[in-house]
Here is the input.
Amino acid sequence: MLPSPDDLRTLQRRTLTVVVASQVLGGAGLAAGVTVGALLAQEMLGTDRLAGVPTMLFTLGSALAAFLVGRVTQRAGRRVGLGLGFAAGGLGAIGVVVAAALGVVPLLLVSLFVYGAGTSTNLQARYAGTDLAAPDRRATAASVAMVSTTLGAVAGPNLVEPLGVLATSFGLPALAGPFLLAAVAFLAAGGTLFAFLRPDPFLVAKELAGAADGADDGAPAGTGGAPDGARRTVPAGVVVGATVMVLTQIAMVAIMTMTPVHMRGHGHDLGDVGLVIGIHVAAMFLPSLVTGVLVDKVGRVPMAVASGVTLLLAGITGAVAPGDSMVLLVLSLALLGLGWNFGLIAGTALIVDATTPATRARTQGTVDVLIALAGAGGGAMSGVVMAGSGYATLALGGGVLSLLLIPVLFLTRRPSRATA
Here is the structure.
């Protein structure tokens, strides 16, 4: 029997509750790589030029994970897909700790790649909140999942020093401390989803869509009523949403990755680095509830334009900020996180609007692959650009790059909203 409207509302509330719990835990896990990944590589590899390698590796790993989680979710639901993704991220974090303890660079590189599964899964969990949401509440539902990441994601960077003390008490390098937290956090997030995300919201949405299509035109349940040829056509909304998220990801990752290295080069300690990155991560996730409402009420395209403008302001601020100015560095990284937040929620809503449950999870996974690859490219090139031209050039270049999404938005016809 199909659930009644009251049952669906109850299931949506339960789904959001479980997703919120998992995102609090997952946020603590993703903060490790963001905060000390570049510093750990700098320490173990002995060069600034390769400090962007960790970001490149865990974003490449997140790309593979996004692809696999999307495919698994399409077949088996969010519970299995997200649970396995977080479990892989936890194992990767354990590998990083072991590599740092033994000083084994190849193990570090492989482990960072696997650790990326956790960061990707944490991001993909936002889609679980949208599966049963009404079309005019999709951005708000996605934002609930994202804002709940804030607690763990902000706490993680600000626990760098005490986690370093804990790590050294175990005979480990101080920079391995945040990855100890990541291991526990990712495994706990995966366990929470696997145990409590029942019934699976994506599978319920597929059943509802299949029943509606079957009633409309006799299509078999679960097919979404779409012929194979139609499935191969990429909707305009998917192209626009993916472009928005890819460009904002490149700009954000490139600047964020090198900020800790830039700060350490100007005499800031790990506490200062943790504070700046913590505020940046808070700006990435904390405004989500307001952003989600704005995306639903004001529109997807206007908020995507706001993303490009905000990222440009972040780049200009970072470029003119003296290396010893905590105030301007905090402002730059806060604007960077806010611009990313605008772009991600607007892009997410565009993707969900343009797809149906018959292909939605697979499409979402593919788009997140592009986002992860964009982040990998931004992370890898950030070290090269900074070593060759300096942090100011990197920051300004990232801000200018983000403006490319504005002509894309206006040159592409705005897609109509999906009703599935």
